[in-house]
Q: What sequence folds into this?
């Protein structure tokens, strides 16, 4: 990340989006490799996802002070060992993204395995019209994904989740 040096910031303001983006990406990669080794590339992709999705060729987006400050904040949070899912506000579960924050657990691979086991067990038994409740659901990733998966295999059921946290 570019230092808060006003001279460098002024020079960066004069660069076009592509040049700024390349410079930031290069410095970010160096910083992440130094602290996270093999995970650096994945972390870089996640941190820059917002800007990677923009159409750079149209030139309708700029990396201004606010965007650079947002990225700097994300990197600092990462260096303080905050989970990337909380920094990005989303966690991946069974092919879907779910909103996450520090008041919920981050979706885990082991829970995906539980979902597969439950789905397969219900399919094997051929049961339909089930009512399933996930208590302490957090993100809601398990009941939402389970209901969608059951519908996909033709099993109608009512899957709900509840949690004390809004």
A:
């Amino acid at each position: 990340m570019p230092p808060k040096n006003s001279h460098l910031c002024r020079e960066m303001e004069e660069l076009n989006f592509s040049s700024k983006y390349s410079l930031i990406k290069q410095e970010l990669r160096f910083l992440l490799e130094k602290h996270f080794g093999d995970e650096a590339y994945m972390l870089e992709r996640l941190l820059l996802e917002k800007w990677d999705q923009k159409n750079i060729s149209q030139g309708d987006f700029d990396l201004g002070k606010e965007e650079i400050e947002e990225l700097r904040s994300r990197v600092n949070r990462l260096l303080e060992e905050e989970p990337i899912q909380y920094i990005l506000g989303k966690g991946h579960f069974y092919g879907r993204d779910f909103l996450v924050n520090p008041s919920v657990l981050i979706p885990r691979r082991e829970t995906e395995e539980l979902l597969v086991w439950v789905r397969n067990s219900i399919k094997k038994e051929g049961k339909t019209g089930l009512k399933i409740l996930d208590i302490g659901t957090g993100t809601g990733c398990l009941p939402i994904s389970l209901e969608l998966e059951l519908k996909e295999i033709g099993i109608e059921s009512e899957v709900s989740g509840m949690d004390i946290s809004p």
